[in-house]
What we know:
- Helix content is 35%, strand content 15%.
- The chain has helices at 2-17, 43-46, 105-108, 116-136, 160-177, 186-192, 194-197, 260-270, 283-291, 322-338, 346-377, 395-405, 421-428, 460-472, and strands at 74-79, 85-91, 96-102, 150-156, 181-185, 209-211, 217-219, 228-233, 238-245, 248-254, 384-388, 409-410, 413-415, 438-440, 444-445, 447-449.
- Helix 8 (260-270) runs parallel beside helix 10 (322-338) and helix 8 (260-270) runs antiparallel to helix 11 (346-377).
- The radius of gyration is 24 Å and the shape is globular.
Amino acid sequence: METALLRRFTRSRLATATCPCLLRSTFLPLNSTRSTRHVKPPARLISQFSSSSSTTTSKTLPQHALPPKGRPLIALGIETSCDDTCAAIVTSDRQILSEVLRTQHHLHEPMGGIVPKLAHHAHMRNLPSVVQEAIQSAGLGEQGIQAVDIIAVTRGPGLAHSLGVGLNAAKTLAAALNKPLIGVHHMEAHALTARLTTRDPDQPNDRDVSVSESGVPIGSDPYPSFPFLTLLVSGGHTLLLVAHSVDRYTTLATTVDDSIGEAFDKTARELDIPWLPGRAGGPGASLEEFAKGSIDPGRYLERLPIPLSLRSSKNEMKFSFAGLKSAVTRIVKQEKATSPSGEMEESKRQDLAAGFQHCAVTHLCQKVEQALVDCHEKGLDISSLVISGGVGRNATLRSRMDEICGQFEYGGAIATDKMSSKEKKKLKRASTNATPNETLKAARPVRVICPPPKLCTDNAVMIAWTGIERYQQGLVDPYDIDIVPKWPLDMLGTGVVPE
């Protein structure tokens, strides 16, 4: 009897250990209560958002979870939402101390796409060594992992079992080290990456570190400043949003069928294009590179539709790529049927890849242009367009967006009470409505901002940075949070998390 019970117990433990979605954290502090939302921040952070309302259960984190005054925050980020296992350590003065990434392309390319079960098991194998290497290469000194102030991890959206591997590791680390845990929305991280990597053109020394009145170490205000437009284009998402602030976004357009990344991937498979290796590789990147060899990029344009470009649908704020993808499939079948060898010539495949890319990018540009017009008419002063996500690496997309955004201008007020007299005089010439502490910026074109290509794909740097931004706003999570595989970005800040 006793032996049978032991066997049942062992089997249940093994089942739980191999299925992260079944795990519920056992490291919940004694003084905390379960919640599905954020918790009350440390006392030194309360003043930053005391005016905002909250309906969630709260707790106070231990004081030693905060860094010493005057030292930048240090965050460990963990990302396992899809097929890359990533860890990174980033500081609040925007220094990337380390980044480690393990790709799984060799596992998924033979399958023609991402296989969730393979991704899950690869994360379980890779994550311990990835985290260890990130810590060891960050130069944290004798303290090592103890020097980390925040544990940030992707909570969703993504593949459920993959998310579970990263989240359970982060919860265990945070509980063992008694550190704040930040559950990060994957798409918010993409949106905020530019605020880590971009310098404000008006503030050349914007990496200087200062300390707030509450004693929390901060850098200068990251750039771009809110509000800005964000185009998130990846294998799972095609989103156009207004980023009003950390934790607050408004969706302007999303796809009604396939994402642009999925359309790129399936078109690459249809055209038999081999994946490019490395973190900047994959099927989408391979299609862009393959299309560069096109001699006649307009060969198939008459047979490829630009989605939602007719007069009746041109102003509709939504994306659609299923029709374009189907048109590519039809052309490939027709070309193979008429070819003596039964295969499509490489030159024609290159032309078709170039035509597909042109139509897909044009579709994105038309909707972004419409969004800029709508925002202008509503009086929303948009300073920039941030393009992120895996497809954000596409050079053709970036170039075309530069042309679109260059047609729009923005202007706004900036504080001058801390400026030198010489700087004030210079700005005053740009405006006739200056006040003692406020001067209007001269109008200038809307700027297109793209993070470095390697940070457009899934990475832990963006997770760590978003953890810092959220922590500075007092957005801290309890240790019992769960994964959220499907999670609309504009639900952030509402206090509601999908089941």
